[in-house]
Request: fold
Amino acid sequence: MKVKITSRAGEHQFDAEPEERILYAGLRGGLSLPYECATGTCGTCKARLISGEIEDLWPDAPGKKNLKSDQGQFLMCQCAAKGDVVAEVSQFVTSLRPLSGAPQWCEGTIRNTRMLTADVMALQLELDVTLGFEAGQFMAVEVPEVKGLRGYSMVNFSTDSSVLDFVIKKLPGGALSNWLFSGSRDGVRARLFGPLGVATFHPDVAKNLLCIAGGTGIAGIMSILDRACQTRHFDRFEGDVFFGVRTPEDAFYLDELAAFQAGFPRSLRVTVAFSDQPATDEIRSRYPGIRFAEGFVHEVAGRDMQGRFENVMAYLAGPPPAVDSSIRLLIMAGVGADSIKYDKFS
Amino acid sequence: MTEKRICRIEDVPSNGLKECEVDNGAPVLVINSGEEYFACNAICPHQEVPLCEGMFDGKVLTCHMHLWQWDVRTGAPIGLAEAPLEMFEVSVDDGWLCIRASNALRVASLFEGIAQETLEKINAIAEERQCSEGEVLYTVGDPAEELFILESGRVEFLVGRDGKVTSGGFMVRKGEVFGWAPLMENQKQRVAQATCKEAVTLLSLNGAKVREILEEDPRSGMKVMMRLSSLLTKYMIAAGTS
Reply:
């Protein structure tokens, strides 16, 4: 199928496979199409159908709430072309060449599932190919048993990897997480599209790092810390990591965070904030290198960072209300918009 | 648009924002900054997000969705923002805040920040034109004498000829400038076709006269030429067809 996208400054054409989401077909064709979550929740990849027929793969997608469907608007991440299609995007779209960094489809096998807390699971996907990605990026993942794709950030970082680490939280009513948590899934095949996302860290970022994460939002932050430690970023710059969960029982990756901190004891600070309960003596004595605080993570970060917002590059991740609160905190503290990075999931 | 009363000034929070409904029009965002009041289109020029949900520190307005930012005094974009705010002219009458639409020239980013006197001279040669749906403003090979500033409506472009015609994009935003060939040297003919896709209001400017005015004020002229070259670069990068 041929898809033609008319944008602010001209048109672009690419091929799409049957039932392939128009966004994915365009991205792997090297186009800079607008998107954020790529999985139907945010609404950023809005386009307007000019001609042809499309199939909506998720008619109830929450990202459709502001769409004017009577004007032909649709989400490119949830619609596939049923023949040749012409659609319009209101942004500037550019064509990226070469295609080496463009996201692609790949397949892999689920391995090493393990529980990190009562409702958070870690797992690996062993890919059939190696994949290059930036620290902080995510993949859209689907398994044959569950309809649709979900976005998960890589936890690990390596320049060319065939093993990707993910963490997944059990969500009430979450079809994929329910499936994952209700039986042994090691050995199951999965299909992935990516890498996606722009909230990335690169060693060229000559700034102090400020990371604020809630819950499983810590995943992408772990990848960023992994890369920053590998490149000894904290020899030259400061790092402040704030990780929020509800109670001490909900905390995970504390061993890994303590290890990052121990590598740069003077320049890297890690604070874990509990919103519902104070830290226990046990957790304090077990992790002497980690600081513990009580409160919402953005409030804890706001108090602690007062007077230290200059020259930071901020990375935010977690539930959208928490990310919004952190954005507000940073903007009102005078941090420039180009120094705040996040990808919005829900 | 004539002057419209839209709210009482005491209803606007100090150093804050208030969205106001306007009869027969898009909602307007009223902004208080110290002693001054400003007003702009209440919807973000990026993606239809209400700006009253954004962040405001008394000087800079930030849309919470993608962190586009503007100086509320002028509507000029800052940082990540790629388009200015559509500002209104504001006055206070007997405790009422009144707004009046700015003419498109004043919100055109091509002329943003140039000397007031120069802007007035350009304004004096601007002619308003009403075009109907389907009207072709110019086509390939036509003499390029005027440039246009969009007031309202939608204009689409086609490039190429002899059966190999492709879309050159479209313009929908108040203050967008097109048909800029007469601002350049030796661009005597149109290289694209511009068609009104709905009823369009625009300002037309004689290119040679604009150049004359800018030559008298080289500082403003330099600003305009820098903006024009950035604009052209943006279109060149985006137009690489695949």
